[in-house]
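Q: How would the C-alpha coordinates look for this protein?
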Amino acid sequence: MFPGRAPVLILSQNTKRESGRKVQLENINAGKQIADVIRTCLGPQAMLKMLMDPMGGIVMTNDGNAILREITVQHPAAKSMIEIARTQDEEVGDGTTSVIVLAGEMLAAAEQFLEQQMHPTVIIRQYRQALEDMIKLLEGPLSVPVDKNDKTALANVVKSCIGTKFISKWADLAVNIALDAVSTVMLTENGRTEVDIKRYAKVEKIPGGSIEDSKILNGVMLNKDVTHPKMRRYIEVITSDFNLDGKLE
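A: Here is the predicted structure in C-alpha coordinate form.
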Protein backbone atom coordinates (compact mmCIF):
# COMPACT_ATOMS: atom_id res chain seq x y z
CA MET A 1 0.00 0.00 0.00
CA PHE A 2 2.83 2.38 0.83
CA PRO A 3 5.78 1.71 -1.49
CA GLY A 4 9.17 2.61 -0.16
CA ARG A 5 8.31 2.02 3.50
CA ALA A 6 9.97 -0.71 5.54
CA PRO A 7 7.70 -3.57 6.62
CA VAL A 8 6.40 -3.48 10.18
CA LEU A 9 7.26 -6.63 12.17
CA ILE A 10 4.42 -7.69 14.46
CA LEU A 11 5.91 -10.99 15.64
CA SER A 12 9.49 -11.74 16.60
CA GLN A 13 11.83 -12.98 13.89
CA ASN A 14 12.11 -16.43 15.47
CA THR A 15 8.34 -16.98 15.47
CA LYS A 16 7.19 -19.91 13.39
CA ARG A 17 3.57 -20.01 12.27
CA GLU A 18 1.85 -23.14 11.04
CA SER A 19 -1.76 -23.80 10.12
CA GLY A 20 -3.98 -26.27 8.39
CA ARG A 21 -4.46 -30.00 8.66
CA LYS A 22 -0.86 -30.59 9.73
CA VAL A 23 -1.28 -28.55 12.92
CA GLN A 24 -4.57 -30.23 13.76
CA LEU A 25 -2.99 -33.69 13.53
CA GLU A 26 0.02 -32.52 15.57
CA ASN A 27 -2.27 -31.25 18.33
CA ILE A 28 -4.11 -34.57 18.40
CA ASN A 29 -0.87 -36.56 18.52
CA ALA A 30 0.48 -34.37 21.34
CA GLY A 31 -2.65 -34.95 23.41
CA LYS A 32 -2.54 -38.69 22.74
CA GLN A 33 1.11 -38.90 23.80
CA ILE A 34 0.37 -37.21 27.13
CA ALA A 35 -2.52 -39.62 27.68
CA ASP A 36 -0.31 -42.61 26.83
CA VAL A 37 2.24 -41.57 29.45
CA ILE A 38 -0.17 -42.07 32.36
CA ARG A 39 -2.57 -44.55 30.77
CA THR A 40 -1.02 -47.43 32.70
CA CYS A 41 -1.62 -45.58 36.00
CA LEU A 42 -5.41 -46.04 35.73
CA GLY A 43 -7.40 -48.90 37.16
CA PRO A 44 -7.05 -51.49 39.90
CA GLN A 45 -3.94 -52.95 38.20
CA ALA A 46 -2.25 -49.56 37.88
CA MET A 47 1.52 -49.57 37.67
CA LEU A 48 3.77 -47.10 39.45
CA LYS A 49 5.96 -44.63 37.58
CA MET A 50 9.50 -43.96 38.74
CA LEU A 51 10.29 -40.24 38.64
CA MET A 52 13.80 -38.84 39.04
CA ASP A 53 14.34 -35.18 39.83
CA PRO A 54 17.42 -33.18 38.77
CA MET A 55 18.97 -33.71 42.23
CA GLY A 56 18.85 -37.50 41.83
CA GLY A 57 15.86 -38.12 44.10
CA ILE A 58 13.49 -40.91 43.10
CA VAL A 59 9.75 -40.94 43.68
CA MET A 60 7.41 -43.79 42.76
CA THR A 61 3.75 -42.91 42.31
CA ASN A 62 0.72 -43.67 40.17
CA ASP A 63 -0.91 -40.28 40.72
CA GLY A 64 -1.47 -38.73 37.31
CA ASN A 65 -1.19 -35.14 38.50
CA ALA A 66 2.09 -35.80 40.33
CA ILE A 67 3.56 -37.39 37.21
CA LEU A 68 2.45 -34.64 34.86
CA ARG A 69 3.86 -31.98 37.19
CA GLU A 70 7.34 -33.40 36.61
CA ILE A 71 7.01 -33.56 32.82
CA THR A 72 8.52 -30.72 30.79
CA VAL A 73 6.73 -30.19 27.48
CA GLN A 74 7.04 -27.61 24.71
CA HIS A 75 3.96 -28.28 22.60
CA PRO A 76 1.01 -25.95 23.39
CA ALA A 77 -1.55 -28.74 23.12
CA ALA A 78 0.45 -30.90 25.53
CA LYS A 79 0.63 -27.99 27.97
CA SER A 80 -3.15 -27.66 27.76
CA MET A 81 -3.52 -31.33 28.69
CA ILE A 82 -1.35 -30.81 31.76
CA GLU A 83 -3.44 -27.77 32.71
CA ILE A 84 -6.53 -29.99 32.55
CA ALA A 85 -5.02 -32.32 35.15
CA ARG A 86 -4.01 -29.38 37.37
CA THR A 87 -7.52 -27.90 37.21
CA GLN A 88 -9.10 -31.27 37.98
CA ASP A 89 -6.86 -31.66 41.03
CA GLU A 90 -7.67 -28.16 42.33
CA GLU A 91 -11.43 -28.32 41.76
CA VAL A 92 -12.19 -31.97 42.54
CA GLY A 93 -9.06 -33.48 44.07
CA ASP A 94 -9.43 -36.80 42.26
CA GLY A 95 -9.71 -38.18 38.74
CA THR A 96 -6.63 -36.52 37.25
CA THR A 97 -5.60 -39.66 35.37
CA SER A 98 -9.14 -40.35 34.18
CA VAL A 99 -9.66 -36.86 32.78
CA ILE A 100 -6.40 -37.00 30.82
CA VAL A 101 -7.15 -40.43 29.36
CA LEU A 102 -10.69 -39.30 28.47
CA ALA A 103 -9.40 -36.12 26.79
CA GLY A 104 -6.88 -38.14 24.79
CA GLU A 105 -9.58 -40.53 23.60
CA MET A 106 -11.83 -37.64 22.59
CA LEU A 107 -9.00 -36.18 20.51
CA ALA A 108 -8.37 -39.56 18.91
CA ALA A 109 -12.07 -39.94 18.10
CA ALA A 110 -12.10 -36.53 16.40
CA GLU A 111 -9.23 -37.47 14.08
CA GLN A 112 -11.38 -39.58 11.80
CA PHE A 113 -13.87 -36.73 11.35
CA LEU A 114 -11.07 -34.36 10.36
CA GLU A 115 -9.97 -36.87 7.73
CA GLN A 116 -13.51 -36.70 6.35
CA GLN A 117 -13.00 -32.94 5.78
CA MET A 118 -15.38 -32.05 8.60
CA HIS A 119 -14.86 -28.58 10.05
CA PRO A 120 -13.49 -28.45 13.63
CA THR A 121 -16.30 -26.14 14.79
CA VAL A 122 -18.86 -28.78 13.79
CA ILE A 123 -17.01 -31.42 15.83
CA ILE A 124 -16.77 -29.12 18.86
CA ARG A 125 -20.47 -28.28 18.61
CA GLN A 126 -21.36 -31.97 18.83
CA TYR A 127 -19.00 -32.47 21.75
CA ARG A 128 -20.76 -29.65 23.59
CA GLN A 129 -24.13 -31.21 22.83
CA ALA A 130 -22.87 -34.52 24.21
CA LEU A 131 -21.68 -32.70 27.34
CA GLU A 132 -25.13 -31.22 27.90
CA ASP A 133 -26.71 -34.65 27.49
CA MET A 134 -24.28 -36.19 30.00
CA ILE A 135 -24.98 -33.45 32.55
CA LYS A 136 -28.72 -34.08 32.25
CA LEU A 137 -28.20 -37.81 32.83
CA LEU A 138 -25.84 -37.29 35.76
CA GLU A 139 -28.18 -34.82 37.42
CA GLY A 140 -31.20 -37.00 36.68
CA PRO A 141 -31.59 -40.78 36.78
CA LEU A 142 -27.89 -41.64 37.31
CA SER A 143 -27.32 -39.52 40.42
CA VAL A 144 -27.65 -41.02 43.89
CA PRO A 145 -28.30 -38.65 46.80
CA VAL A 146 -25.92 -39.02 49.74
CA ASP A 147 -26.70 -37.85 53.24
CA LYS A 148 -23.67 -36.04 54.64
CA ASN A 149 -24.61 -37.23 58.11
CA ASP A 150 -24.46 -40.88 57.01
CA LYS A 151 -20.85 -41.78 57.73
CA THR A 152 -21.15 -45.22 56.13
CA ALA A 153 -22.27 -43.79 52.79
CA LEU A 154 -19.54 -41.15 52.87
CA ALA A 155 -16.97 -43.81 53.69
CA ASN A 156 -17.97 -45.79 50.59
CA VAL A 157 -17.53 -42.69 48.44
CA VAL A 158 -14.08 -41.97 49.82
CA LYS A 159 -13.06 -45.62 49.62
CA SER A 160 -13.80 -45.66 45.89
CA CYS A 161 -11.28 -42.82 45.44
CA ILE A 162 -8.39 -44.63 47.11
CA GLY A 163 -9.09 -48.08 45.74
CA THR A 164 -6.33 -47.76 43.12
CA LYS A 165 -3.81 -46.03 45.39
CA PHE A 166 -1.00 -47.58 47.41
CA ILE A 167 -2.78 -46.73 50.65
CA SER A 168 -5.72 -48.97 49.71
CA LYS A 169 -4.18 -51.64 51.98
CA TRP A 170 -5.07 -49.37 54.90
CA ALA A 171 -8.34 -48.18 53.34
CA ASP A 172 -10.42 -48.17 56.53
CA LEU A 173 -7.83 -46.16 58.44
CA ALA A 174 -7.38 -43.66 55.60
CA VAL A 175 -11.13 -43.21 55.14
CA ASN A 176 -11.74 -42.57 58.83
CA ILE A 177 -8.89 -40.06 58.98
CA ALA A 178 -10.18 -38.25 55.89
CA LEU A 179 -13.75 -38.03 57.21
CA ASP A 180 -12.60 -36.85 60.64
CA ALA A 181 -10.35 -34.22 59.08
CA VAL A 182 -13.14 -32.86 56.91
CA SER A 183 -15.61 -32.75 59.80
CA THR A 184 -13.00 -30.96 61.93
CA VAL A 185 -12.44 -28.09 59.49
CA MET A 186 -16.05 -27.85 58.29
CA LEU A 187 -17.66 -24.47 58.98
CA THR A 188 -21.37 -23.68 58.82
CA GLU A 189 -22.35 -20.01 58.70
CA ASN A 190 -25.76 -18.60 57.74
CA GLY A 191 -26.88 -21.94 56.32
CA ARG A 192 -23.78 -22.20 54.13
CA THR A 193 -21.31 -25.03 54.62
CA GLU A 194 -17.67 -24.47 53.74
CA VAL A 195 -14.87 -27.04 53.80
CA ASP A 196 -11.53 -25.41 53.01
CA ILE A 197 -9.07 -28.26 53.32
CA LYS A 198 -6.29 -26.38 51.54
CA ARG A 199 -6.12 -23.74 54.29
CA TYR A 200 -7.21 -25.55 57.44
CA ALA A 201 -6.13 -29.17 56.87
CA LYS A 202 -2.55 -30.23 56.37
CA VAL A 203 -0.73 -33.54 56.19
CA GLU A 204 2.47 -33.68 58.22
CA LYS A 205 4.99 -36.47 57.63
CA ILE A 206 7.10 -37.51 60.62
CA PRO A 207 9.88 -40.11 60.19
CA GLY A 208 9.52 -43.28 62.21
CA GLY A 209 6.55 -45.36 63.25
CA SER A 210 4.06 -46.98 60.90
CA ILE A 211 0.99 -45.99 58.94
CA GLU A 212 -1.22 -47.29 61.76
CA ASP A 213 0.20 -44.55 63.99
CA SER A 214 -1.40 -41.84 61.84
CA LYS A 215 -4.12 -39.85 63.53
CA ILE A 216 -6.07 -36.60 63.48
CA LEU A 217 -4.81 -33.70 65.59
CA ASN A 218 -7.48 -31.11 66.33
CA GLY A 219 -5.24 -28.12 66.82
CA VAL A 220 -1.87 -26.78 65.73
CA MET A 221 1.24 -28.94 65.55
CA LEU A 222 4.71 -27.41 65.92
CA ASN A 223 7.65 -29.51 64.83
CA LYS A 224 10.29 -28.46 67.36
CA ASP A 225 13.62 -30.17 67.88
CA VAL A 226 15.16 -30.64 71.33
CA THR A 227 18.04 -28.18 71.47
CA HIS A 228 18.80 -28.37 75.21
CA PRO A 229 18.68 -31.31 77.65
CA LYS A 230 16.60 -29.30 80.14
CA MET A 231 13.86 -28.51 77.67
CA ARG A 232 10.43 -29.75 78.69
CA ARG A 233 9.20 -32.77 76.78
CA TYR A 234 5.51 -32.29 77.60
CA ILE A 235 3.52 -29.06 77.84
CA GLU A 236 -0.19 -29.09 78.62
CA VAL A 237 -2.20 -26.02 77.58
CA ILE A 238 -5.54 -25.46 79.29
CA THR A 239 -7.93 -23.19 77.41
CA SER A 240 -10.71 -21.31 79.19
CA ASP A 241 -13.67 -19.30 77.96
CA PHE A 242 -14.32 -15.75 79.20
CA ASN A 243 -17.61 -13.96 79.05
CA LEU A 244 -18.11 -10.36 77.95
CA ASP A 245 -17.34 -9.04 81.45
CA GLY A 246 -13.93 -10.68 81.47
CA LYS A 247 -14.90 -13.24 84.10
CA LEU A 248 -13.81 -16.81 83.80
CA GLU A 249 -16.68 -19.19 83.16
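Residues 244-249 have pLDDT under 50 and may be disordered.

Residues 161-240 form one domain.

Upvote if useful.
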